[in-house]
Design goal:
Strands 2-1-3-4 form a 4-stranded mixed sheet, with helices on both faces. The protein is globular and about 50 Å long. The chain has one domain: Glutaredoxin (3-Layer(aba) Sandwich), CATH 3.40.30. A hairpin with a 3-residue loop joins strand 3 and strand 4. Helix 3 packs antiparallel against helix 4. The termini are close together. It is α+β, with helices and mostly antiparallel strands.
Amino acid sequence: MDSIPVRVDVWSDFVCPWCDLAFTSLQKLEESHGVEMVSRSYELRPKGSPPMPEEYRKRIDDAQPQFNAMALEKYGITINRGPFGIDSRPALIGAKYAEEQGVGKAYHDAMYRAYWEEARDIEQLDVLLDVAESVGLEREAFATALETPSYLHLVLADITQAQGMGLQGVPAMIFAGKYLVSGAQPYDVLANVVKDVRSRLTNSA
């Protein structure tokens, strides 16, 4: 049963803190359970969104120390967040190019680290180029890809698909095309999900 392939489509945004934690768990799950992780784009606050209410922003800031402590204790990640309220679309577009070049997972890992551990502004072109170069992509080709409509269309297609399925937050993980798991679930929880999904797939075969 462990050999049954399980695909996990993951909708996420680089500026989503819970997505960073979920990606860490999913990387471990890929290594231990052989699942296929497919990254999908999602924008928490698309460019041009109304300003975030001050009260809501304050709640986020007030909760940050508790989140940082949890991330370190449960995921081994030391949080050092980048600028708040930036446009993540360029980074998402770059991810599509990186995936096409075979370094999608390395790019996602490097981009999460750049924003959540190195406090870098991943909206800025020079930062995006640095991240791309760090995973083996050529800077000029990557810069061209950021302006290539086909990669933007892939991002928008992911967002449209999420809307069509009624996904209203991320991370959202769909196992085997039908089982939705939401939030930054710990590795042990996801491992049990894979076991359950494989059992269901075996019984339905």
